[in-house]
Amino acid sequence: MADFHRPVRMPAEHFDFVKGGEDPAVLVRSAHETAQALVSRVRADPDPEVVQRLVSFAEREGIDAVAELWSRAAALSLPGALWRLYLLREMVRRDPDLVSLAFNRGAERLRSIDPVIAGAPTPAGPEEILALADEILRGVFEGDLGLALDRAAAFARVTADGSLDLADDADATEPARADVLTKRAARLSALAEELSISARLQRDGALD
């Protein structure tokens, strides 16, 4: 894949966590406070312009700016879930052609309702996949948060399956590409599981 252009400085497909020298307890507490305040305030009055600015925040400021806010929080928490949603969107924004190819391959192979839950048309081109990523993240601020997390989890599962299938295709002739796709599939599968659990916690009123 091509390198990020500024202001994005951290490769989203690696799902890396930014480390810092500050007190981890303070950083985690701040992550929870900012996530809760932001989501509750915007959901109370979901102004479309504000919501759109939040959806495109990482695009304007860089994914590392989101990481500084929420990457240190536990996966099964509100800030942890927000971090993973922004990472998922950044993966799509970085290479919508490959993601749409993987999603469509997964949708063809999977015998589940995940493609329906994700909400993408079939087949889904790069523009539709980009729109879907925005729509899922927008749902955090102006829709049902649990549903947004479920949709993101379903999208990640479908794309993981398709990535693994693409890796199988490339294994004999492009082993390096196959390795990249296999690692992406593993990361997406883990992401899907974390988002699914977060969705259940949200419905139980336990995602904080």
UniProtKB/TrEMBL annotation:
Organism of this sequence: Amnibacterium kyonggiense
Protein name: DNA-directed RNA polymerase subunit beta
